[in-house]
Design a protein that fits this description.
mainly alpha
Amino acid sequence: MTPTLVWGAVILYTLIALGVAWRSRERGSQTPDMAHYFLGGRRMGGLVSALSYSATTYSAFMMVGLAGLTYAGGVGALGFEIVYFAGVSLVAIFGPRFWAVGKAFGFVTPSEMLGHRYANRAVAVVMALVSSLFLIPYAAVQLAGVGYLLSGMTDGAIGFTTGVAVATALALLFTFIAGIRSVMWTDALQALLMIVAATLVALLVVASLGGFAAVFETLAREHPEALTVPGSGLFTPATFLGLTIPWFFFSLSNPQVSQRLFMPASLPAMRRMLIGFLCFGLVYTVVSVMWGFSALIAFPDLASSDLATPTLLASAHVPPVLGVVVMVGILAAAVSTIDSIMLTLSSMLSRDVYAMARGGDDEQRQLRAGKMVLPVIALLALGFAELRLDLIAVLSVAASTGLVVTVPALIGAFFWRGGTAAGALASMLGGGVWVLGLYATGVTPLGWPPGIWALPVAAALFVAVSLCTAAPRHTADTFIATAERALPWRR
């Protein structure tokens, strides 16, 4: 595919997306405070929320990462993603509770919520820092996905670093224009582009390979290991569990996703958001897996599985114009995740870390601090992406493995009055150090990867330390009662 065609498509997409972002600024320019800039004033509707939630969640991981994982590991990749899909049920349990306490107490970030619940601002600071430690590499994975995509589709004419820089610049532009409002409206545009283009071209590719029946007959004949459970080569039962356990808790552990639960205008809007996301996710998962299988049939000897989608898009199986449309859709998916991560981390660092360092501060200063830290986050992610670490899907799960250490404190906040600040701190700090130690040393106790160990170690620390310490019960009682009153069956 020619660089001219690729650059033309990127420029056209950028102009349209910037127009949407600027229009959102005009519609939402009142009250420049933290809740407005980072939460859209808590007035987001169900349809926009669903599309934005989908675009934020389904990033370069899907069409590049999941397709590559399918190419490398076969049908086990579908099982891996279905486990994540099942984990979205957590939103039905925690979503109304997040929304209720966020509205009642004015929370802007999940870390602020935990700091209030455990009556200790150090809890908020530690969660913000742990999230930054693991989310910046996850943002870098999205940037790397764009770099591999543009480089692979143009046979190296557009360099990896150029693709990374383009994605970084777009994410910064969208976040600065109007905060979360511009991000959500551009996300909505990007989600529609992602799902329509990817589905259409997937159908064309399958048709060029002889249809669905022919695709699976070829797989059974030439790559039978790709259809075995849990999958070929990459997957063993332990590896599969190590990847899927953190992924199951993604909607709760990743703050750029859980922060979205503060944004809907009402509980019915949240319900529409969840239903819309589930419909989107089912289609996009099937499409991404079919991309991986199609690439395995058409190009069985790729040097890197992450090149499966770029190679397929640049091949004769996909008309150039449609291929570049899908490319833009993947670029949009990556940018939507990056700018959401940047906004969430900047809100946590300004709302929790900066404000605590100053002993409390007004919202205007917090907002200015949040905007100042955005480029810093972007540059850190860009630097990490330049390391070009392999296998995007596995790196994404490694980031989620680190974030899963926050899950016991989050669950305890709503369901265990005996949970204490000391327990929350022990679980996040101890669990985080444990995960980093396992990845740094390559040690796998009992042959189990870090993804299996992270949650039980963090949970054990949370429970054990909480049982040995005390905390004010009034805050816990008020917090849990506020969350419970919002539930439809309680009302």
